[in-house]
């Protein structure tokens, strides 16, 4: 999956990644118009400046300075009115595109997005499906994301679609897009939100209508993978790896290396054996026992992982010797 994402990142131009939604090409046109327009104006100013430098240089040693010129109505009006017309044109162009970006079509399918330290949770209200760090949507259908945060300010960004918006606690923000090309797209958090910010990633899969219907029917579809392999998948896909290393490095949370069967010391100095029940409790009710030296910041995964996925995580931790 990571390879599919990087292939898409490689496409596109030097300036911008591949444009893949119905409104992203509008954003690109405006961006290039402003960027190249500014470059032309800059080169024009530079040329005029260099010409004046040469044309009005001091030509002999005792040349007197020109007397002060107060103003020139024609030139001053021209350099006021022409830029005004240009910037009002850019405003009109930008504002009409902004409205297209901000107002979702009335038939857009809704998906709810919750940002929290440090993962993205998605819920399909009509289909009862919840996912972590992965959304699947059909191609050529308008999708509306209704977003809020459970803790600090995050920001939801899909570069290929040119949509980005802050995700804020106690308020809903929304974006919409209609994907034009099937593929796997990278989603970033673009608001610095703490230790795990750079790992707060998700992927967007755009699939055909049939594949989407199959995906909805299959649910999370994790039943046929062996537990250990599923555990490794969950470790990465559900963002455990943002805070828990498997090489012994302490991150925001304790490393998983060699913890199974050992004892963890809590904030109050009491110890607990790291066994199956301890891991299960830590996943579903992380505040119940916080390991000494670590902040109590882990979100609960209750209702977000199936029992089988929790079993898989336990097997995966056992393997980290
Ligand atoms: Cu969430 Cu950065």
Write up this protein.
By secondary structure, the protein is of the alpha+beta class. It is 36% helix and 21% strand. The chain contains seven helices and twelve strands. The strands form three sheets. The protein has a five-stranded mixed sheet, with no helix packed on it. The chain has a five-stranded mixed sheet with strand order 4-10-9-6-7. Strands 11-12 form a two-stranded antiparallel sheet. Helix 2 packs antiparallel against helix 3, helix 5 packs across helix 7 and helix 6 packs across helix 7. It is elongated, with a radius of gyration of 28 Å. The mean pLDDT is 88. Bound molecules: dinuclear copper ion (CUA). Dinuclear copper ion (CUA) binds next to loops.
Write the SSE topology.
Elements: H1 2-10, H2 24-55, H3 73-102, E1 109-116, E2 119-124, E3 129-132, E4 134-138, E5 142-149, E6 154-158, E7 163-167, E8 173-178, E9 183-189, E10 201-207, H4 209-218, H5 227-237, E11 263-265, E12 271-273, H6 276-284, H7 307-319
Helix pairs in contact: 2-3, 5-7, 6-7
The protein binds dinuclear copper ion.
Radius of gyration: 28 Å
Task: Tell me the number of helical segments per DSSP (H or I, 4 or more residues long).
Answer: 7
Terminal CA distance reads: 27 Å
The total beta strand count reads 12
Q: Structural class, from secondary structure content?
A: alpha+beta
Query: Can you list the strand order of the major beta sheet?
Result: 3-2-1-5-8
| Biggest beta sheet summary | 5 strands, mixed
Heterogens: dinuclear copper ion
Helix content: 25-40%
Low-confidence stretches: none
Report the β-strand fraction as a percent range. 15-25%
Mean pLDDT: 88
Order of helices and strands: HHHEEEEEEEEEEHHEEHH
* Bulk shape: elongated
């Amino acid at each position: 999956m990571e390879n599919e994402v990087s292939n898409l990142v490689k496409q596109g131009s030097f300036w911008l990644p591949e444009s893949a939604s119905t409104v992203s090409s509008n954003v690109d046109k405006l961006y290039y118009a402003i960027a190249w327009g500014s470059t032309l104006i800059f080169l024009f100013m530079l040329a005029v400046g260099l010409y004046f430098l040469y044309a009005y240089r001091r030509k002999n040693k005792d040349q007197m300075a020109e007397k002060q010129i107060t103003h020139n109505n024609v030139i001053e009006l021209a350099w006021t009115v022409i830029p005004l017309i240009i910037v009002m044109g850019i405003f009109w162009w930008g504002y009409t595109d902004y409205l297209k970006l901000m107002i979702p079509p009335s038939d857009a399918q809704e998906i709810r997005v919750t940002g929290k330290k440090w993962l993205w949770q998605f819920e399909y209200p009509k289909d009862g499906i919840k996912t972590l760090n992965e959304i699947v949507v059909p191609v050529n259908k308008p999708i509306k994301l209704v977003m809020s945060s459970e803790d600090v300010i995050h920001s939801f960004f899909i570069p290929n679609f040119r949509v980005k918006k802050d995700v804020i606690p106690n308020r809903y923000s929304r974006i919409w897009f209609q994907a034009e090309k099937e593929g796997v797209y990278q989603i970033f958090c673009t608001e610095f939100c703490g230790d795990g910010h750079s790992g707060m990633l998700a992927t967007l899969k755009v699939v055909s209508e049939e594949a989407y219907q199959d995906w909805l029917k299959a649910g999370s579809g994790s039943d046929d993978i062996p537990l250990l392999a599923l555990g490794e998948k969950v470790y990465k896909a559900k963002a455990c790896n943002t805070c828990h290393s498997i090489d012994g490095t302490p991150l925001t949370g304790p490393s998983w290396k060699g913890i199974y069967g050992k004892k963890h010391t809590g904030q109050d100095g009491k110890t607990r054996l790291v066994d199956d029940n301890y891991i299960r409790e830590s996943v579903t009710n992380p505040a119940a026992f916080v390991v000494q030296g670590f902040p109590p910041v882990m979100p609960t995964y209750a209702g977000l992982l199936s029992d089988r996925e929790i079993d898989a995580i336990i097997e995966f931790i056992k393997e980290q010797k």
